[in-house]
Design a protein that fits this description.
Blueprint: E1 4-8, H1 29-40, E2 47-49, H2 57-61, H3 66-74, E3 81-83, E4 86-87, E5 93-94, E6 100-102, H4 106-125, E7 131-135, E8 147-148, H5 156-165, E9 174-178, H6 185-191, E10 197-204, E11 228-233, H7 240-257, H8 268-278, E12 298-302, E13 308-312
Parallel strand pairs: 1-2, 1-7, 7-13, 9-10, 10-11
Antiparallel strand pairs: 3-6, 4-5, 4-8, 9-12, 12-13
Helix pairs in contact: 4-5
């Protein structure tokens, strides 16, 4: 049986400005500490390394606007700084803020992160690996087709999903499961009218919690109505028990029903909301961390929406 693939891009690129390097949470150590943990657990020898590569302009343009990609490329010649979000269109540009940072390597790092997830996806589709894990940065799930935000510049999982759905990829449908503590607003916005993609997100939800999206009532639109499923937890500390229960009670039944149904189920917004709100008292924290998920966690499943095959963190 083919092995599990691993993409790890350990180059120390895309760094916060020196003034914020000691305190900013999106640093190279975010992925290097996970890589070291894999080594300590003696798992690296059991994984097949897949070389990261840069996503091509055509792959990125399947998700993002040309204006978005041009603005990203321009960062290579811009003075390194901390900024707010970037949005395209009339009156767009960079907003005031300090959550986003960039340097001369940001555009390249974003392309390599997206390309690394695409490379894993291609390996799965060719049968060279059974599944894969992309340990890359910067993250991607807050990036919209024309917006860079939340430390995210290119939406890596969306780029990989579109590559899988292309004539070359050959798939007819893709399942994206996002279990980061923050809602994947960018991924939802990209696919909310695409009936070929089922987007399922579990996340913290409530007043003042970034990004403020992901209500259970958001279900997609047009031909994709019912293809967006949000499970909004209103209390912190949800762990393995709650996540596994959500997969069993919501994700698997919906995922199994959709491929064979031309009419997606309409009851899931109320069920997802009521189920999430019934989880009043958290049980245990996620076994992969000492606190709830703090980095971008996404999995992309192929062929009939079934078990996740490619993960990105």
């Amino acid at each position: 049986m083919p092995a599990i693939g691993l993409v790890y891009d350990g180059h120390a690129q895309h760094l916060p400005p020196a003034s914020a390097r000691a305190t900013h949470i999106e640093t190279p150590e975010r992925v290097s500490v996970i890589y070291r943990a894999l080594g300590k657990a003696r798992l690296l020898d059991r994984l097949t390394r897949v070389a990261p590569r840069e996503a091509t302009r055509a792959e990125a343009e399947a998700v993002h606007t040309a204006e978005h990609l041009d603005a990203l490329e321009a960062l290579a010649d811009a003075e390194p700084s901390l900024r707010g979000a970037w949005r395209g269109g009339a009156g767009g540009g960079w907003s005031l803020g300090r959550d986003m940072f960039h340097d001369a390597q940001t555009a390249c790092a974003a392309r390599r992160a997206a390309g690394g997830v695409v490379a894993l996806t291609e390996g799965v589709l060719r049968g060279e690996i059974s599944s894969g894990f992309a340990l890359v940065r910067p993250p991607g799930h807050h990036a919209c087709e024309d917006r860079m935000a939340g430390f995210c510049f290119l939406n890596s999982v969306a780029v990989a999903a579109r590559a899988a759905l292309s004539p070359r990829g050959g798939l007819r449908r893709v399942l994206v499961v996002d279990w980061d503590v923050h809602h994947g607003d960018g991924t939802q916005a990209i696919f909310e009218e695409d009936p070929a993609v089922l987007f399922f997100s579990l996340h913290r939800f409530g007043r003042g919690f970034f990004p403020g999206t992901g209500a259970a009532s958001c279900v997609g639109g047009g031909a994709a109505a019912g293809r967006t499923v949000n499970v909004p937890f209103r209390r912190e500390g949800m762990g393995d028990a709650e996540y596994l229960a959500a997969f069993d009670a919501l994700l698997l039944p919906i995922a199994r029903a959709l491929p064979s149904s031309s009419s997606p189920p309409r009851a899931h917004p109320r069920l997802a909301r009521d189920w999430a709100e019934s989880r009043r008292e958290p049980s245990i924290r996620s076994s992969s961390s000492s606190r709830p998920a703090s980095t971008r966690r996404e999995a992309t499943g192929w062929a009939g929406w079934t078990s996740p095959r490619v993960g990105s963190r």
